[in-house]
Amino acid sequence: MRATPAQFKIDGVWVQCYATEDFGALGQRFLCDFAKAPGEPQKLMLLRLKDWTQVSLPNFVAPIPLVLKPGSDARPPMLRAVKGKLYQRTLAMPDGKSRAEPCSVLQQDVSGLLSLRDAILRAKKAGDTPRIWQLFFGACKTLNRFGKTFGGGQPVPLQCPGSLAVESGGRIVLLDAEIRVGAAAAAPDAKQLYQTWFGEKGGSGAADAKDASLMHSRALLLFFRQLLGGSPQQPAGAVPAALAKAIVGLGQVPLGIPLDEMEEWVRNNGED
Asked: 0.85 cut: is pTM over it?
């Protein structure tokens, strides 16, 4: 069942957008489908409210802003452009009526993408073990390349596994890569999210290059294990033998391997 839609006025037209957790990980996010007629190409836009309300803080505490930090004009294929926009949004009032107010958002075209989570679950359902390994190694390589773009001792922004998506051709895309959490130290929801995947040291949302590689490696392993289920000794449920072996294999990978050594380790230790 879909959540109650939010109304945004985009290019002069009121559009219904639905709260989503499928794309990205930072901020309150809405997915807008701009397909106007059957058979038209999918046109999906992700809107993030620029002000991120921290649900663990009292209502009177101001939201934490999301800050756009775009890279160079030569944006690598692993990124999708994010643009700041100001739209009208309808808000429900205590009297049951609604009113329109200006709303700053960060807009991102996610047409043609599938969240990494859904891609893993589809491959699991189909028993497509090669696809699972393709997604895993692809995510490792993309995060490794991303980390290496930050030279000169710059901190690497940590990318939560749930923020990764997959293009139809298989390329992994980082949807949160150009977004930062302003005043991160005052954003408990963001800190908890980062610590869930990257441990205590990752609570700030950034790390030096070496630590970032290890943290991303650990987070990907935890993410894949969580979605595939089972344990190194006992895969969950009746699954094809090759898929069970993949579950066991991912469970046996040590958490302290850097991204650029991950594929070699797995291939040398039993990946099929």
From this structure: yes
- For the chain (272 residues), the mean pLDDT of every run of 10, in chain order, is 74 90 94 76 90 77 86 77 94 74 95 96 92 95 93 90 95 96 82 93 92 95 88 54 79 87 83 56
147 Cβ contact partners less than 8 Å away, ≥ 6 residues apart: 156, 209, 212, 213, 216, 259
Q: DSSP letter string over the chain?
A: -PPPPEEEEETTEEEEEEE-SSS-SSS-EEEEE---STTSPP-EEEEEESEE--TTS-TTSPPEEEEE----SS--TTB--EEEEEEEEEEE-TTS-EEEEEEEEEEEE-TTEEEHHHHHHHHHHHT-HHHHHHHHHHHHHHHHHHHHT--TTPPEEP--GGGEEEETTS-EEETTTTEEETTGGG-HHHHHHHHHHH-GGGTTSEE-HHHHHHHHHHHHHHHHHHHH-S-SSS-SSS--HHHHHHHHHHHHS-TT--HHHHHHHHHHTT--
Per the listing, tokens 């890569």 go with 177
Lookup: tokens for 257: 């391997």
User: Would you say 120 and 131 are in contact if contact means Cβ atoms under 8 Å apart?
Assistant: no
pLDDT tens, 2-58? Answer: 556 789 999 888 898 999 998 999 999 999 987 666 777 778 999 999 999 887 776
Q: What is the pLDDT of residue 231?
A: 47
35, 17 contact by CB (below 8 A) = no
